[in-house]
Amino acid sequence: MKIVLLTNNSGPAKFIANHLYEKGLLDAAIIEDGTIKKKKKIFREIKSTPWARIPIKFLDLLAIYIYSQFTKSYIEKHLLRRSNIKIFPKKLICHEVKNASGLHSISILKSLTPDIIIVLGTSILKPEVLTIANQYTLNIHGGIVPQYRNVHSDFWAIKKKDFNSIGTSIIHLDPGIDTGQIAIQGFLKVKPHDSLFSIKIKNIELSLDLILKAIDMVKNGNLPKTIQKDIIGGFHKTPGFFDFLGWFTSNTINIERFS
Fold first, then answer.
1. Pick from 159, 167, 169, 179: nearest CA to 252
2. What is residue 231's DSSP assignment?
3. Which pick of 11, 12, 90, 137 has the fewest CB atoms within 10 Å?
């Protein structure tokens, strides 16, 4: 069974790739450099924002950038260094692409003839990508669906004090945003000393456990496909300045802000 990871150049991707490769469960990785797409998205957002709201938009962008940098630093310090991981596995076949749905990426994927494509952290994929795998295209989503779709699911669950809905979902990818059928889910037990950042670490480790279980289920021919419930309010936007301000000043949960 050939497995390909379609992902970004992030700490969680390196962590999961290294562990899958060590277990002989990863044949290649396609790594998306989403820098250009992110810049274009930011430009579109600013261009479409009314002049009166431009200052707030800049605050939102600055807030998510700072938050992302702190998250990246925390993951490197408390997860990657602990596991002695710095890069993707040296002997793993890795391809770098600008766009996970671009012609270059699609050509590479088709040439690899994967049985399973595991997706983690890429931009939204075009339908053509979803039909390449011989068996399954599975997305590692760090949130519980359908309650928490889109990015930063853990942030929104914590902000809403919904501590029983923090975890990871392995989803059969479809053209929607985290709307595919559920293969397997796992929930975290949040402890009083946990922070948003320590929860992220636990969720990455849970993601690895779940994708390993999903691969084992594929081998045994019993990977579930559970249709998501149709609910209102499950899609969450990227957090903005005032969202972070509300979380930062909350005493609901211990916050390791800068460790």
1. 159
2. -
3. 90
Structure tokens belonging to residue 186: 């796992």
167 with 186: CB under 8 angstroms?
yes
Residue 259 within a domain: no
Nearest of 121, 148, 165 to residue 237 by alpha carbon: 148
CA distance linking residue 115 with residue 136, whole number of Å:
7
Please give the residue range of the domain that contains residue 30: 3-248
Global pTM exceeds 0.90: yes
Continuous H helices in 76-173: 103-112, 127-130, 153-159
- Residue 91: inside a domain: yes
**pLDDT, one tens digit for every residue, the chain (259 residues):** 999 999 999 999 999 999 999 999 999 999 999 787 777 777 888 878 888 888 999 999 999 999 999 999 999 999 999 999 999 999 999 999 999 999 999 999 999 999 999 999 998 999 999 999 999 999 999 999 999 999 999 999 998 889 999 999 999 999 999 999 999 999 999 888 888 899 999 999 999 999 999 999 999 999 999 999 989 999 999 999 999 988 877 655 444 443 3
How many whole angstroms separate alpha carbon 139 and alpha carbon 172? 6
Please return the burial class of 91, using the count of CB atoms within 10 Å of its CB with bins 0-12, 13-18 and 19+: exposed
* Chain mean position to CA 109: 20
Q: CATH number of the domain that 182 lies in?
A: 3.40.50.12230
**Other C-beta atoms lying within 10 Å of the C-beta of residue 96:** 13
